[in-house]
Design brief:
Helix content: 55-70%
Strand content: 15-25%
Largest sheet: 3 strands, antiparallel
Number of helices: 4
Radius of gyration: 21 Å
Structural class: alpha+beta
Shape: elongated
Strand order of the largest sheet: 1-2-3
Length: about 130
């Protein structure tokens, strides 16, 4: 492979791009699950128990929704359901960061761009070292 060969064209470029996209999707899912189960779930459960509610789960609304972001779902013992924005349950900046990490529609493309950039940088450095 010469220094002028494009990184993302041809069969090898397609395979690199496919690998980057699959890795970005996997990383996005892992980060989303880790944030939901490791951070959001305990905070929402503590908020529910402090207010006499039952924690039911977390939902993430996309940016086109009326109330975007993560929401804790609560229920009353009688069966009524309610929700609260993560901003009401956690400090603002922490909940803002977690909102982004829970939104797969945002994180997967972000990780894809980051991985593509790192791949291009690594391949160019490797080509520069061998030339």
């Amino acid at each position: 492979m010469s220094a002028q060969d494009p990184l993302w064209e041809g069969r090898r470029g397609f395979l690199r791009l496919a690998l980057v996209c699959v890795l970005a999707f996997i990383i996005g899912l892992v980060v989303e699950q880790a944030m939901e189960h490791g951070v959001v779930e305990p905070v929402c459960a503590a908020h529910a128990s402090a207010h006499g509610l039952v924690y039911r789960g977390v939902t993430v609304n996309g940016p086109c929704n009326n109330e975007p972001g993560a929401h804790c779902l609560f229920g009353h013992v009688g069966g009524d359901e309610t929700s609260a924005s993560l901003h009401k349950v956690m400090p603002f900046f922490g909940s803002l960061a977690i909102d982004f990490l829970l939104d797969i529609e945002f994180t997967v493309p972000l990780f894809a761009v980051l991985l593509a950039g790192l791949t291009a940088l690594a391949l160019r450095r490797r080509r520069g070292a061998t030339s």
